[in-house]
Design brief:
alpha/beta, Rossmann fold, Isopropylmalate Dehydrogenase, 5-stranded parallel sheet, about 40% helix
Length: about 300
């Protein structure tokens, strides 16, 4: 089967998997979430457990009435209660993916991270993986972390490398990710301690910690994604100009890249939280309906190919 190189292929690939994914949605009370649910049902790859806040349950009630064989409705007291119940559906195995509706992200994360009743895997690092469909590229571009970890430690960088390579494989079907370790300079220096962390990641990769992988850096984004830039600089690496996974030095760089890519690059970006027992779709309020739909589609594919 050919690797997935753009988002348009995702619904068909999900249908080919012949496995309908169950998604628990916390407080589905906004038009974008409503659109994503209906589109996913139409594309025949998901069914839903809608956990609605009783004070704003109209959309959820309408969806349950219109799609009785695809939608189960649970009415909760408020957004916090909706988050707890949605997380419980995942924790107890009735749902494969968790999705944020109209509630605040903090409400959902409190339930996700609850030590007794949450779904963060013990000893795991919670982080965010983004997947971009960029018009100028002939492949999907994965990057981390744009949303969760402010300044990763060496141990957290190791987790990011493990997560992004595994996510790349589960979503694209590709077997040898090319990972660029992003920084403003190509030099390893104690002045930039994170470049020392990058050296450890490269050593880990050489020892097989991330499976079959090409990993290089530090390097800037242009060098990672544009072969001509790498040739001009004389940097020899299989990753240069060919990167399909980017690990950013901190959340400031990752988040800025995320927003710039969508605003000026015309990219559609999907994203999910990983480190949990199931993928968690937590999109930005400013994300488009397409972005939210493909976030769910990528999370569903990851759930199938875990």
């Amino acid at each position: 089967m050919e690797p997935i190189v753009d988002f348009k292929i995702l619904p068909e690939r999900l249908r080919q998997a012949a496995q309908v994914v169950t998604v628990a949605v916390a407080s589905p009370a906004d038009s974008h979430t409503e659109e994503v649910i209906e589109r996913s049902i139409a594309e025949q790859f998901a069914r839903f457990i809608l956990v609605a806040n009783a004070a704003k349950a109209d959309i959820a009630r309408r969806l349950a009435a219109d799609y009785p064989d695809k939608v189960t409705l649970i009415v909760a007291e408020d957004d916090d209660d909706a988050a707890r119940h949605a997380v419980k559906e995942v924790r107890e195995g009735r749902a494969d993916v968790l999705m944020k509706g109209s509630l605040n992200t903090d409400n959902l994360l409190r339930a996700v991270l609850n030590k007794e009743e949450g779904i963060l895997i013990k000893g795991s690092v919670l982080t965010h993986i983004a997947v971009a469909d960029v018009p100028s590229l002939n492949h999907l571009l994965f990057f981390t972390d744009a949303a969760v970890i402010p300044y990763p430690t060496t141990e957290q960088f190791d987790a990011l490398a493990r997560y992004i390579t595994a996510t790349y494989r589960s979503i694209t079907g590709g077997d040898r990710p090319r990972v660029a370790l992003i920084h403003c300079t190509e030099k390893v220096s104690e002045k930039f301690p994170l470049t020392l962390s990058y050296e450890e990641l490269k050593a880990n990769a050489a020892n097989g910690a991330y499976g079959e992988v090409e990993i290089g850096g530090p390097m800037d984004v242009k060098t990672a994604c544009d072969a001509e830039s790498g040739a001009i600089k004389g940097i020899a690496s299989p990753v240069v100009g060919n990167a399909n996974c980017l690990i950013f030095p901190d959340i400031e760089a990752g988040n800025t890249f995320y927003k710039t890519l969508t605003l000026f690059g015309g990219a559609t970006v999907a994203g999910m939280l990983v480190g949990t027992s199931a993928p968690v779709v937590v999109t930005s309020r400013a994300d488009t309906a397409d972005s939210k739909f493909y976030s769910l589609a990528t999370a569903c594919l990851k759930a199938i190919n875990k």
